[in-house]
Write a structure and sequence with these properties.
By secondary structure, the chain is α/β, with parallel strands linked by helices. It is built from 14 helices and 17 strands. It has helices at about 5-10, 35-50, 60-80, 95-110, 130-135, 155-160, 185-190, 210-215, 240-245, 280-295, 300-315, 345-350, 365-370, 390-405; strands at about 20, 20-25, 25, 90, 115-120, 140-145, 165-170, 195-200, 220-225, 235-240, 255-260, 265, 320-325, 335-340, 355, 360, 375-380. Strands 4-10-9-8-7-5-6 form a seven-stranded mixed β-sheet, with helices on both faces. A four-stranded antiparallel β-sheet has the order 13-14-17-16, covered by helices on one side. It has a two-stranded antiparallel sheet with strand order 1-2. It is globular, with a radius of gyration of 22 Å. The protein binds 4'-deoxy-4'-aminopyridoxal-5'-phosphate.
Length: about 400
Amino acid sequence: MNYDIEKIRSYFPILQQKVYNRPLVYLDTAASAQKPVQVLLKLEQLHNDYYGNIHRGAHYMADKATVEYEEVRDKVQTFINAASRKEVIFTKGTTESINLVASSFCEKYVSEGDEIIVSEMEHHSNIVPWQIAAQKRNAKIVKLPFNDTGLLEIEKLPGLITSKTKLIAVNHVSNVLGTINPIAEIIEIAHKNNVAVLVDGAQATAHIKIDVQQLDVDFYAFSAHKVYGPNGVGVLYGKEKWLEEMPPYQGGGQMISEVSFDGTTFNELPYKFEAGTPNITSLAGFGAAIDLVNEIGIENIGRHEHELLEYATEKLKAIKGLKIYGEAPQKSGVICFNIEGIHSYDLGILIDKMGIAIRTGHHCAYPMMQHFKMSACARISFGMYNTKKEIDIFMEALNKAIMML
Ligand code: PMP
């Protein structure tokens, strides 16, 4: 397929802008992806033409908004190949999806002395919810380590699993190292031992084809804003067998079947886990984002980003004193690095002034920083709209910044 980069870029109005009087080069898609005009128009259309609260109203606009909301559920179901729309729960984002499982799954299945295995390579949002849930039950968190290449030491996994292990939490793609983890293998090992697996897919869904049935994953969490959709919405995929048994996460409207002061019965899936008025407009926008990703093709996007990854990695490696963190053979379009004698924060500020958006800091992954004995690093990350020319502009800016610091 001919990857029509100019056409793709034309969908993103923000990329046509100048910052500090220079054309914007956006290399921070791992933090949040920019929004295409298709999404922006959908947000406007819903607000202008048929806004109403869903599942409640007996009027034209509420009905139309409800149909759209449920159509997005079907789109997500197809996008990740879930067996049933009941298994697609809308949340605020990856963080809320993981908190939901940590709270409800642990309430049902985790007791004192039980264990949850969490990889060392996780974003805080796939560590802290487990710690909170484990603390409440006197359960234990067990660390699955990774090595300096940026690979999980999965040969150690069978030895870490005990009769007390209830769940393994791991990301699909690391937001720092870019490593694409062998989650199918992890899931197979876990299931042989009757252990459930939650995969944090925040950094994967916009770059890799996800097939939850093929993976046989128990829970898969991701955020719309990293898949070119609006912020404030996300998805929890969960196998029906777990979701049926798990208690509700939050109480409120929509998640009930009947309520009286004598007691409440809960709605069927997926509504049991969708208390309150959801983010209706953002969800509709997410539908438009999925349409665009499907139109371009996730494999084509992934291939394009991989070319950028190889191009940028080679250029960065030529810089004296520059260290790249994570050199796994299977990597997504994320590169974290530091340069000897230079603080990444200073680098980020100077590069920003040249019109280039990169990320610096601890990337919400303190254990990762501790592993590499660093406090921060710089990160560039790619989306469907980035180009080799932008990498050249970045490299020029980086070299200038190095000279200045
Ligand atoms: N996990 C990973 C790997 C991430 O990169 C992020 C976002 N940086 C999250 C979880 C959290 O996502 P959100 O803030 O959208 O809930």
